[in-house]
Design brief:
Layout lengths: L1 E9 L2 H28 L16 H21 L9 E4 L5 E3 L2 E8 L2 E10 L2 H6 L3 E10 L2 E9 L11 E6 L5 E5 L4 E4 L2 H20 L3 H32 L4 E5 L4 H4 L4 H9 L2 H14 L3 E5 L21 E3 L5 E3 H11 L8
Parallel strand pairs: 8-11, 11-12
Antiparallel strand pairs: 1-5, 1-7, 2-6, 3-4, 4-5, 6-7, 8-9, 9-10, 13-14
Helix pairs in contact: 1-2, 4-5, 5-8
């Protein structure tokens, strides 16, 4: 199983100049080689000697491999992808990581020389880097340099218990987890998320009046980072709750068409169309798989309306669910309970 470790780099001015140069040269070289292959209508046999650019031989060879991959993909897509974002890639034999420093070769005055760039590597990332390394990919996001290292992690042993957990995702309560043993926990604060979005929307409106487009773009990026951080924290807590309760399977609603099918009030409509249910589900899924917990997707039909005791359908009043059979609880908890027994989308039991 492969994972990507994202590490923040702290290059000095001289190192940043080299990174800017090699990343632009790399992407230009890949695009040029792809164009040559398109004209020749075949994958060309090339070596580093055939690529006359100011880059180390190992980086040239990686650019050739990437160009071949892009060309083959263009045959399937029936169009030629043009890479635009500056990036550079080194294979696992051409870089080293020592404590909080990453070393890799660049071209300085026409010669290949290694530079050692400071990096912020967390304890969690250090543990991941104990596994087998793949390629090193360095790119610039906004004003920050990021190193992305692919590592191969051993598949964890699958949990063999018979405890299943249903997770309901929503606006007012981002996630509600219910186990088959009856344990329930609510995660996140929907009101806080709505407040954050309103705040960013208000700032965008002010910047829009003065036509500060770059500032609006940066604000959008900041909002996305903020919401992704919230999803990461919620998904981590959900999976930790599953671990604490010895859960072997997490079940989630298949919400791919929620924007088209969900009935919601006018005041929640904009939040529904901007909230990424898919992203939160994806974060829960990959974090669960890392600890040996299986994830299944179920049919979301009537999960928040059906009484888990007698099977009768009722409409909840706000968050309060009450059935004529006497059963009553929080509406989202009802959904979590029903998700545990709902039919899996692919038809599996």
């Amino acid at each position: 199983m492969e994972q990507t470790v994202k590490i923040k780099l702290l290059p000095i001015k001289e190192q940043e100049k080299h990174l800017n140069h090699i990343s632009k040269e790399y992407i230009k070289t890949v695009n040029k080689l792809v164009d040559e292959m398109v004209q020749a209508e075949k994958v060309l046999k090339l070596s580093s000697k055939d690529v006359q650019v100011s880059m180390p031989s190992a980086v040239k060879n990686q650019a050739i491999r990437d160009a071949k991959s892009v060309y083959r993909r263009s045959k399937q897509l029936k169009r030629i992808p043009i890479l635009k974002k500056p990036v550079c890639i080194w294979n696992n034999q051409n870089y080293k990581i020592k404590e909080n420093v990453i070393e890799f070769p660049v071209c300085i005055n026409g010669k290949s020389k290694r530079i050692a760039v400071k990096a912020i590597i967390t304890e969690y990332q250090q543990n991941l880097l104990k596994n087998k390394w793949g390629t090193l990919r360095i790119t610039k996001k906004s004003t920050k340099w990021i190193a992305q290292i692919c590592v191969t992690v051993e598949e964890p042993n699958q949990n063999e218990s018979d405890i299943v957990m249903g997770v309901d995702l929503g606006l007012k309560v981002p996630a509600v987890a219910v186990t088959s043993t009856g344990k329930t926990k609510f995660f996140g604060n929907g009101r806080q998320n709505k407040y954050i979005r309103r705040k960013f929307k208000s700032k965008r409106r002010e910047l829009g009046k003065t036509k500060k487009l770059n500032a609006i773009r940066k604000l959008n990026d900041k909002e996305q980072r903020c919401m992704k951080d919230q999803d990461h924290k919620i998904s981590r807590k959900v999976v930790d709750f599953a671990i604490d309760n010895n859960v072997s399977v997490i079940r989630l609603e298949k919400l791919s068409n929620i924007r088209n099918t969900a009935r919601t009030s006018r005041k929640n409509e904009k939040n529904l169309h901007t909230w990424s249910f898919y992203r939160l589900a994806l974060y829960i899924e990959y974090k669960a798989k890392l600890v040996g917990i299986k994830v299944e997707y179920v049919d979301p039909k009537y999960t928040s309306q059906t009484c888990p005791v007698c099977g009768k359908q009722n409409h909840a009043k706000d968050r309060k669910y009450q059935c004529s059979c006497g059963f009553k609880t929080h509406r989202d908890r009802v959904a979590g309970m029903n998700i545990i027994h709902a039919p899996v989308v692919d038809g599996a039991a």
